[in-house]
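Data deposition worksheet. Section B asks for the primary sequence of the deposited chain exactly as it was used as input, without tags or linkers unless they were present during the calculation. Section C holds the resulting structure in token form. Section D is free text for depositor observations; keep each observation to a single sentence. Incomplete worksheets are returned to the depositor.
Section A, Depositor: J.P.
Section B:
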Amino acid sequence: MRDVGGNPPTRKVVRNAKLAALPVAFAGRRAAGASKRALGRPAAEIDADIRLRTAQHMFEVLGELKGCAAKLGQLLAIYELGLPPELAEPYGIALSRLQDSMPPMLPATVHEALTASLGSDWRAQFRQFDDRRAASASIGQVHRAIWHDGRTVAVKIMYPGARAAVLSDLDQLRRMSTLASVFVPNADVRAVTEQLAECVRGELDFAAEADHQRTFAAAYADDPDFVVSSVVLQRGDVIITEWLDGIPLTRLVDSGAQPERDRVGMLALRFVFSSPDRTGLLYCDPHPGNFRVLPDGRLGVVDFGACTAWPTPDFRPMVHDIADALFNGGPAELDAAMRRHEFADRRHTFDVEAVAEQLFPYTELLRHDTFRVDSNWLRRRVQVALNPRLTNVNRQLTMPAYYTPFARAILTLLGLCCRLGTSGPIRDEILRWSPELTEVLDRYRARTGQPVDLNAARLRRASAPTRDAAAG
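Section C:
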């Protein structure tokens, strides 16, 4: 069901009905599955069929609704990475359909949107304009055109009604946010939800997005590693930028050679971690659709709607204190740091040993000269974090609202690097942009007299007698 004209639905009653249909349909499939089991059909076969149908239905609805719903679909890409392969496959198939097959605006609607933002003579500003969309986004789509001065440009157009639809989704998200307390009973869910809503609201402001892109384009001008195209014009719900020709990272994820995947994964890591120092903004949306590998090897970056001023005053001290407790302290220091930076309520106890156990694998990124992250590595992390047992320590923790944009950025970036199977000097890249972590590791070396990469040190010691013998 779509609005008149074949465009994505924006009316509140239609969107709510489609979202409400998801759990109803799932319950119906479960009931039908019970009947099939009673008739002797294998339970595993029935469960697999239910997962496949539910995943397809979920992503079909999310893709048609767009807005916040499509953002949820992007986050589910990380969820899919955390599932065992036999469970993840249907979600991966449906997610690729969500990313590649979102319903386009019809040409008449495109023209109406351009008229609303650029005026009735909008065609006079272009030498050519392609009515076929070149790419899709969660709240709009992109068309290729030739600007009046001969430049090839990308014209990003917000879906008519998308703003009202997304704001309605945010209201619904607020009402539903209390359900999250079932999983994280100690969290200030309302504050975190409001911070997330603020991030999404920011993506509706094309004037702010254009300003963000101008800031990034100036900061990365003539950079040997990155290209951010210039903003040609922003007016209303239209942004026109210089066109970037390149290979989408979605294609590299599917079929790229591993050395190139490693190189691009490290570049994506560098871009996100360098963005606060170079621009004063954190790039919060590093999913594969927002990157292109250009013919000269540089990484092109698009879509600057999801950016936030960074770092906050609390962030660097938090990183220092928690990392210092993990590398140079013990349970008491970690307990104090978690409470001081509002990841644990001062009034409640929590299993600090379990927290340390969960955080330790992430410190591996800083303990080795080179490190590899892939879907299996992430899957183990996600399965532990999302374990539904009541004893899961994450139920005893919370998250400060200021951390929400960074959590979104780092989770999406980690998912991208894992999908690429990135291997490289991850520690050096992180330390390059994090003086607080550098200080922690310097203190570790001074305190222990050992390098952080204990495995590399062992290998060097093991090979030393051979080298000495050869020298003799």
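Section D:
The two ends are 81 Å apart (CA to CA).
Residues 12-100 form one domain.
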